[in-house]
Design brief:
By secondary structure, the protein is α/β, with parallel strands linked by helices. The protein has two domains: 172 residues, Rossmann fold (3-Layer(aba) Sandwich); 117 residues, Pantoate--beta-alanine Ligase, Chain: A,domain 2, CATH 3.30.1300.10. It contains ten helices and nine strands. The strands form two sheets. A six-stranded parallel beta sheet has the order 1-4-3-2-5-6, with helices on both faces. Strands 7-8-9 form a three-stranded antiparallel beta sheet. The chain is globular. The two termini are 32 Å apart. The structure holds pantoate.
C-alpha cells in the first residue's frame, strides 16, 4: 500500500494508479462500517482497478463546541486496517496541506442541508461539501463510496455532484450495526457503559415506527407522521431515559422535506445525545420489515436501505 500526505505526492501516485479508481473518504478511527465501504469500493473498482482511502479529520465540519480536539486519531491502527483491507493508496494530509491559512472559499449546498443535522449543526455541511469537493479534485476518482448512516450527508453529496457536474459516480452502502442494532460510528467509543446500554434505543424506535407503518392497517388518509414519531419518541424515552432527543423527523427521501403523512417515499431520521455523544440513525419506511423480529427489537445487522 502506498501512503502519502502531500498534494504533490498524491498527484504523482494518482497518475500511476490503474483505473477505475474508487475513493473512500474517511475521518479515520476506522471500524467495520468503513471496512464495508472499502470492500464495496474494491468490488466496484474491480480486480484491475484501485482503491484510495483518505484519512482526514476535517476541522471545517465541526462546530466551535463540538468534538474536534478529542475526535479519535488512532493513525497506526488505521494504517494497519487499510493495509489489511487491500487499499492501494492512503492519503493522510495535515490540516495545513488541505487548508491554506487564508483560505476563503467554501462550497455551500442550500437546500437539502438546511434541516435535520444541518439545523442543529450550522455550517457542518458547508465543511463536508468543501472537503468532499477538494478530495474529488485531488483524487479524481471514478467512483466514491459513502455510508447510508449519514443519510443527509449522502443526499447532500449526490446533490453537489449533480449541481456542479462532478464526473464521479456516488455509491451508498448499507449501515453496519452492532448485534443490538446500534449503528457503527467512531463516536460510539465515547459512550460509557450506561450510555452504551441505552444507545440502541434510537434504532429500536425507528424500527418500531417503520413496523407500525408496514404492518398496521392505515386509516384511509394514510399513517399520520405525528403518530409514528410519537411512538418513536415514547420508545426512546422508555429505553434511553438519559437521552436528549435532538430531532426525530419523517421526511421525503428525495427532498428531505418533512411530511405530515407517511408513504413509501418516507424516511425516518433521528439524532439523540447521550451525555456529550451525538448519535444519528435513519430508516426508510419502504425497507422490508424483518418477519422474525418482534416489533420493537432491532432489525438484523445489515438492513436493506
Ligand atoms: O462521513 C465522514 O466521515 C466525513 O463527513 C467525510 C465524508 C469523510 C468528510 O470529512
Amino acid at each position: 500500500m502506498l501512503t502519502c500526505s502531500t498534494v504533490d505526492d498524491l498527484r504523482d501516485h494518482r497518475r500511476r494508479l490503474p483505473g477505475p479508481v474508487a475513493l473512500v473518504p474517511t475521518m479515520g478511527a476506522l471500524h467495520a462500517g468503513h471496512l464495508a465501504l472499502i470492500d464495496a469500493a474494491r468490488r466496484h473498482a474491480g480486480p484491475a482497478g484501485s482503491v484510495v482511502v483518505s484519512l482526514f479529520v476535517n476541522p471545517t465540519q465541526f462546530g466551535p463546541n463540538e468534538d474536534l480536539s478529542r475526535y479519535p486519531r488512532p493513525f497506526d491502527q488505521d494504517l494497519a486496517a487499510c493495509r489489511k483491507a487491500g487499499v492501494d493508496l492512503l492519503f493522510a494530509p495535515a490540516t495545513e496541506t488541505i487548508y491554506a491559512p487564508d483560505h476563503s472559499t467554501t462550497v455551500r449546498e442550500t437546500g437539502l442541508s438546511r434541516g435535520l443535522c444541518g439545523a442543529s449543526r450550522p455550517g457542518h455541511f458547508d465543511g463536508v461539501c468543501t472537503i468532499v469537493l477538494k478530495l474529488f479534485n485531488l483524487v479524481q476518482p471514478d467512483l466514491v463510496v459513502f455510508g447510508h448512516k449519514d443519510y443527509q450527508q449522502l443526499a447532500v453529496i449526490r446533490r453537489l455532484v449533480r449541481d456542479l457536474n462532478v464526473p464521479v459516480e456516488v455509491l451508498g452502502i448499507d449501515t453496519v450495526r452492532e448485534p443490538d442494532g446500534l449503528a457503527l460510528s467512531s463516536r460510539n467509543a465515547y459512550l460509557d457503559p450506561g450510555q452504551r446500554r441505552q444507545a440502541p434505543a434510537l434504532r429500536r424506535a425507528l424500527v418500531a415506527a417503520r413496523d407500525r407503518f408496514l404492518t398496521q392497517p392505515a386509516p384511509p388518509c394514510g399513517h399520520a407522521a405525528a403518530g409514528l414519531l410519537q411512538l418513536a419518541t415514547d420508545l426512546i424515552r422508555r429505553h434511553a431515559p438519559d437521552a436528549a432527543i435532538e430531532y426525530l423527523e419523517l421526511v421525503d427521501r428525495d427532498t428531505l422535506q418533512p411530511q405530515t403523512r407517511a408513504d413509501r417515499s418516507s424516511v425516518l431520521l433521528g439524532a439523540i445525545r447521550l451525555g456529550q455523544t451525538r448519535l444519528i440513525d435513519n430508516l426508510e419506511l419502504a425497507a422490508t420489515a424483518d418477519p422474525a423480529a418482534p416489533a420493537n427489537l432491532p432489525s438484523p445487522v445489515h438492513e436493506a436501505v
